[in-house]
Design a protein that fits this description.
- The strands form 8 sheets. A 5-stranded antiparallel β-sheet has the order 2-29-28-27-26, with no helix packed on it. A 5-stranded antiparallel β-sheet has the order 4-5-32-31-30, with no helix packed on it. The protein has a 4-stranded antiparallel β-sheet with strand order 6-7-8-9, with no helix packed on it.
- It contains no helices and 32 strands.
- The chain is 0% helix and 47% strand.
- It is mostly beta strands.
């Protein structure tokens, strides 16, 4: 049975002159394949994953664009291979928890942070680490990042760990925070931490603590020019290595300045997911060189029929894979048409 999705969206361009351009996306139906093409330009496709009624915390699409990994809040790990979906749960696999907080993919091996420890999955076998069999102090791991040497860095509450060749070792910071919210590694191998005491950076040359980080920062991203960008309920912030620069959308912009997801395309445009109690989630594009905001603001039933866009992943073809809280769908967007 086909399901009907009615889409009515407005696309705006906002610059200093506040010029606007509107475009309507007509209605479309989901076919038996479970994919809806939202208009004649194929700018949107909607994966209707009715068997995936879980909050998706992270998306990774492999370079062949045929395989995707989806970490969920309570539904374990999903793998999409072509049109085939596989779910990994504690009941049918050795995954240590049905909650996957964060993950990275390196050399066809998936590394996953969970509340019950750290999992390494090569596609067939699971290797799990916890506070009993490894150097972990706490089992609950929140975020993981990989550096230029292939070493993994994990955070848990106020702790940070390094994973090398199957061994987990705690890393002691000179500036000790009470809580670490996120971690990212730039192209030179420098690590950055969002913490309750500010932004901490460290590498083999030493450690630095920077003040000026906006309150309630949520996620870090590194752009193609190696600059650090931070999103959160306070908006968008750039760190250029010395100081923080705030980029605020126009005060009359019809979307909430509360951002929860970030990624970068090959043109160094920044794509952001927003949230707010007065508006549904909006997909935003920010161009740094001219500080222009562009946004796709749904005003009716849409792929973002939720108050928060929680994850954006841009694949090697420029497609934006988007998930939202309380939604069982994954939206795929590309202004020039979704590519395969």
């Amino acid at each position: 049975m086909k399901k009907l999705f009615i889409i009515l969206c407005s696309i705006y361009l906002i610059s200093t002159g506040c010029s606007k351009k509107k475009d309507l996306i007509p209605t479309s139906t989901i076919g038996s394949s479970g994919i809806a093409k939202m208009d004649s330009l194929n700018r949107f496709e909607l994966l209707s994953v009715n068997f995936l009624p879980y909050y998706i915390k992270q998306i990774i699409i492999e370079n062949n664009n045929n395989t995707g990994w989806f970490a969920t809040e309570t539904g374990g790990l999903f793998k999409k291979s072509g049109t085939t979906w596989t779910q990994y749960l504690t009941s049918n696999s050795d995954i240590p928890s049905n909650r996957c907080n964060s993950m990275v993919l390196d050399n066809n091996t998936l590394y996953i942070c969970t509340p019950n420890g750290f999992a390494v999955f090569d596609g067939n076998n699971w290797t799990n680490f916890n506070s009993i069999n490894s150097g972990l102090i706490y089992d609950n791991l929140n975020h993981v990042a990989i550096d230029i040497n292939g070493d993994l860095w994990m955070v848990s509450y106020d702790k940070i760990y390094k994973y090398v060749n199957g061994i987990i070792v705690p890393y002691v910071l000179g500036n000790q925070p009470s809580y670490i919210y996120d971690i990212a590694v730039n192209q030179n191998g420098k690590k950055f931490l969002i913490t309750d005491i500010g932004l901490i950076s460290f590498d083999s040359s030493g450690e630095n603590l920077y003040s000026g980080l906006m309150t309630h920062s949520f996620e870090i991203g590194i752009d193609n020019n190696n600059f650090l960008w931070i999103v959160g309920p306070g908006g968008l912030q750039k760190f250029n290595g010395k100081e923080f620069i705030n980029y605020d959308p126009p005060v009359d912009a019809p979307f909430a300045k509360s951002f929860f997801a970030i990624d970068f395309d090959s043109y160094n445009n920044i794509w952001i997911g927003s949230s707010g109690s007065s508006y549904n989630g909006a997909l935003l594009q920010f161009t740094p060189h001219n500080a222009m905001w562009r946004y796709l603001m749904p005003i009716s039933k849409s792929p973002f029929d939720s108050y928060s866009i929680t994850e954006i992943f841009i694949d090697n073809l420029g497609n934006k894979w988007i998930s939202s809280v309380a939604s069982s769908t994954i939206s795929i967007y590309n202004n020039g048409g979704v590519k395969y």
